[in-house]
Amino acid sequence: MQAPDEPAAQGGADLTARRVREARRRRLTVQGLRLLVAVVWLGSWELTTRLGWVDKFFFAQPSEIVLKLWTWINNGTELGPLWVQVLTTMEETVGGFVVGSILGIIVGVALGRIAILADVLGPYVKAFNAIPRVVLGALFAISLGLDIKSKVATAAILVFFVVFFNAFQGAREVDRNLMANARILGANNRRLTTEIVIPSAMSWIIASLHTSFGLALVGAVVGELFGATAGVGELIYSAEQNFDANGVFAGMVLLAAIALVAEALITALENRLVRWRPQVNTETRI
Amino acid sequence: MPSAIELRGVTKRFLTPSGGVYTALQDLNLAVAPGEFCAVVGPTGCGKSTTLALISGLEPASEGEVEVFSKAVRGIASGIGYVFQSDAVFPWKTVLENVAAGPRYHGTSPRDARAGAREWIARVGLAGFEDRYPYQLSGGMRKRVALAQSLINGPQILLMDEPFSALDVQTRSLMENELLGLWSSTSASVVFVTHDLEEAISMSDRVFVITAAPGTVKSNYKVDLPRPRNVAEIRFQPRFTEIYQEIWNDLRDEVLVSYERQKRSGAA
Ligand SMILES: Nc1ncnc2c1ncn2[C@@H]1O[C@H](COP(=O)(O)OP(=O)(O)OP(=O)(O)O)[C@@H](O)[C@H]1O
Ligand SMILES: [Mg+2]
Predict the structure, then answer these.
(1) pLDDT band with cut points at 50, 70 and 90 for residue B177
(2) Chain A within 8 Å of B98 (Cβ-Cβ)?
(3) Cβ of A184 and B106 within 8 Å?
């Protein structure tokens, strides 16, 4: 937490300058410590595998993982150029994320607004939610084939439930006062949904987008494991078939990179969609 | 002359979470003439907000008749403005969008709605704040937004639920005067709920005193102070003090009853 701003008084400029300096020092400390953690972690990993305390056949070795990535980048992978694999997985993830989110929002808001629908469908949704949904990936691989469709479907179904539950909850917990005000001002049912229910459910929905993008990635990769011809998941699968621990880790590094880029994009989307909320300090938020 | 608002023998019951029935209003009678500014005072929990909800059509009466311009209220009628007790401006809309909401809902084109909204924003003294979001405004400014939002629809009936109770004394009398100014240029009937008897008398033509729960109208007083009024000064007139004494004698008993009851249920 930040201390509340003192009112600008004489010497206010001094104070501001000191604050800025303090903030910068803190940022540098945090970044330095972060680097230290990485060095200690990777260094000890490298060292123990080199000394033979830990078997690098099972646990890989940082330098060899880097080497593997380097070869993939320069010479391509067993499945073809690296960028094709990354792009394939990205495509599947984003496709599943978009389809799942849109369906989740529509169904969630509909059920949140229409009590009879919620009452009738509630038990089915709960039952459906209780099955471990990744196994549906196997079903999709059979019914939709080995191309992108089955992965998008797997990712979408994982995303759908998270977004759906949040949208549903959000739509039901709309401030009654805001609803009353909008109705008094003359809003009809459609307007109530688009102008009051959806915006106020939006903070719930957006909170779920961070989780659900991760799940979309899980869905895409699991879909690839069930059978595919390209993608990072398939790359990991084929490395595993060759007992190539470095290849598995290199694939994980790629997935982590994809997830980080996506996280940044979603945060940007969030800041656009909820401009009306006081800004959250992103550095202190995890 | 027919009344603008008329409640006859109105009873309102609520189901309590424990499954019982709570009677908030009992056999309440109240009439407001067209263009009249009425205040409603009463101890906390006596059903003042409930009365407004009935008039607006947000809540149906359990018994009795609620009429607005001689028509029975069924659901939300048009021509009503309602400034809520708690903040009800839309947090995801800017000041401009908030004020433009009413006309937009009534089918006005976005451009005309925005032009009208700018006028009202200026009229309530918020020019220059059009693009702010509610979280960037002070409590008093948000009340002004709520006021503009209601008034832009040109309501024939304006319901106000303790609109200024959260404001400091100076801002409050400023806004009270502004409200009287805005109201005098319309022909709207106002029902103004407040805890504050001084505010009630200085603003209104008539004051209704509601009893401790279950609420019913105990008495109503005509306030024959001249208009236009300055609420900051009118409190010093001898006639004001007379009226205050008279109403306070009535109100005090109800406040005491309510207070004793709460103390007892708190102790139990
Ligand atoms: N939806 C509801 N369900 C159950 N009880 C309710 C409901 N709305 C109001 N009540 C009850 O009705 C009574 C009157 O409430 P109301 O809000 O009208 O009081 P009020 O006079 O406006 O009080 P205050 O001055 O504190 O705002 C209260 O006891 C309250 O608990
Ligand atoms: Mg109230």
Answers:
(1) very high
(2) no
(3) no
Residues A36 and A107 in one domain: no
**Residue range B254-266: mean pLDDT, rounded:** 83
Considering only CB atoms, A177 lies closest to which of B80, B86, B134, namely B86
Looking at CA atoms only, how far is residue A276 from chain B in angstroms? 5
User: pLDDT (tens digit, 9 = 90+) per residue, A37-96?
Assistant: 999 999 999 999 888 888 888 888 889 899 999 999 888 888 889 899 999 999 999 999
Helix, strand or coil, per DSSP, at residue A231: coil
Residue among A141, A142, A170, A169 nearest A155 (CA): A141
Residue A43: count other Cβ atoms within 10 Å of its Cβ.
11
Name which of A85, A86, A88, A97 is nearest A269 in CA terms.
A97
CB contact under 8 A, A276 and B87: no
Q: What is the CA radius of gyration of chain B?
A: 19
B162 CA closest ligand 1 atom index: 27
Q: Are A70 and A27 part of one and the same domain?
A: no
Q: What total number of domains does chain B contain?
A: 2
| Cα→Cα distances A226→A86, A92, A104, A212, Å | 18, 14, 25, 21
The pLDDT of A225-251, averaged and rounded, is 88
The verdict on a CB contact (< 8 Å) between B56 and A278 is: no
Between the CA of B78 and the centroid of ligand 2 the distance, in Å, is: 22
Q: How far apart are CA A50 and CA A201, in angstroms?
A: 53
Q: How many Å apart are CA B206 and CA B252, to the nearest integer?
A: 18
Range of B227's domain?
Answer: 5-79+172-267
In angstroms, the CA B99 to CA B152 distance is 7
Where is B157: in which H helix or E strand?
A: strand B157-161
